[in-house]
Amino acid sequence: MKQILLITDGCSNVGLSPVIAAAQAYAQGVTVNVVGVVDEGDLGEFGTAEIEEIARAGGGLSRLAQTKQLSHTVQMLTRKTVVQTIQHAVQRELKQVLGTSSIEALPPEKRGEVVHVIDELSETSKLRVALLIDASASMKPKLAAVEEAIRDLSLSLQSRQGSSEIAVFHFPGSAYGEDCKLDLDWTGNISGAASLFPRLQMRGTTPTGPALMHVIDFYRKADYGNRNNDETDGMMSDYVV
């Protein structure tokens, strides 16, 4: 399973639309989930709308947290987003195996068996999470709480039965560019992700769309998707008849 977990306050203002980029990610088998860190007022409403549109286009989930509740809420929502994303991805693949039928249309006893498989695969399937952090100037006051959320994400992934890997990116890489910087390449040493935060410089514009495209390209070069998707499809195809 492949996913991008974007942490942002929305309001992208440079380059390609992040909604278009998220749709491209989803078309290539990468789910885009968004944890939105928004403020009140018109700017917050605009950011909220963009966050929801990105997640919808990326086939993922969005969760919002007001700044004053950030320390607690982002931790909780990050964990919940990861778990629900795994379940959502497994269920989508399972529906493909079932053809036009839905899980709800199955007999109760069969439905229970399928739900059990979803729970099991959610916990044991291989997972790669590309963590994409909005490090624009508007996010600077929120950095400490975001750091706590990432530490919590690391603990959640480490507690899974299946193998988990994480890569960490932030954008913009320079003050006013469209670049995105890789901070941590794929690693199973998930606890090391939080150590990156003291080196982050929160500055510049918000090129969310170009940053998403950068991570999509990173996934493509890693050539991970075919092996992972084949394994997951095979497990469910053998089970569901």
UniProtKB/TrEMBL annotation:
<feature type="domain" description="VWFA">
    <location>
        <begin position="128"/>
        <end position="241"/>
    </location>
</feature>
<dbReference type="InterPro" id="IPR036465">
    <property type="entry name" value="vWFA_dom_sf"/>
</dbReference>
<feature type="domain" description="VWFA">
    <location>
        <begin position="1"/>
        <end position="86"/>
    </location>
</feature>
<protein>
    <recommendedName>
        <fullName>VWFA domain-containing protein</fullName>
    </recommendedName>
</protein>
<dbReference type="InterPro" id="IPR002035">
    <property type="entry name" value="VWF_A"/>
</dbReference>
